[in-house]
Amino acid sequence: MNIVLIGYRGTGKSTVGRLLATQLGRTLISTDQEIVKRTGQSIPDLVAAHGWEHFRDVESEVCQEVGVREHLVIDTGGGAILRPQNVDVLKSKGRLFWMTASVDTISARIGGDTQRPSLTGTRSFVDEIADVLRERTPRYQAAADVTISTDGISPSDLTVTILNHLGMA
Fold first, then answer.
1. What domain range is 131 assigned to?
2. Which of 3, 67, 87, 126, by CA, is between 20 and 30 Å from 30?
3. Entry pTM
């Protein structure tokens, strides 16, 4: 069974994913890193050159490939849940953990990250986070097997929480 981390960018998926993989001796797959490897472009460059739809197409290819493997920790990009086929394949051999955080927490965590392109291109940074979360929350809720708030909780404690849900602590 795979451990699949879903949620908006900046909710702690990558950090917790690394801890889980290390603790369990599993391979960690970051779908965003796989996209960068596959395309040879950073995500901002890929989106600028080819648009979000192309990015989502490559993301879906990656999800289809890693979703059928087993015993992985999978750190998905924030929008992986936008395509039902991604959710279906990730759930086929995995348990999906939705990592949540408040707009303020997310803003504080990713405010200086230049590797995360704007999702709307028209809103202030905080407004964009709020708007995208409002749009995606129903999809995250529908996809998630377990929801975990990351506000004010250390990555090591979040790792223990996930392991407890899996009966592995």
1. 2-165
2. 126
3. 0.91
Q: Specify the long-range contacts of residues 105-110, CB closer than 8 Å, at least 24 apart.
A: 105/10, 105/150, 105/151, 105/152, 106/8, 106/9, 106/10, 106/11, 106/133, 107/10, 109/10, 109/11, 109/12, 110/9, 110/10
Radius of gyration of the chain (CA): 15
Q: Tokens 């908006």 correspond to what residue? A: 8
- Report the 10 Å Cβ neighbour count for 114: 7
Q: What is the mean pLDDT of the chain?
A: 92
Half-sphere exposure of 88 (CA within 13 A, CB side): 5
CA distance 81 to 85: 9
User: Can you say whether the dihedral through the CA atoms of 44, 49, 52, 53 is positive or negative?
Assistant: negative
What pLDDT band is residue 121 in, cutting at 50, 70 and 90?
Answer: low
Tell me how crowded residue 127 is: count the other CB atoms within 10 A of its CB: 12
pLDDT of residue 124: 76
14 confidence band (pLDDT: 50, 70, 90): very high
The enclosing domain of 96 has a CATH number of 3.40.50.300
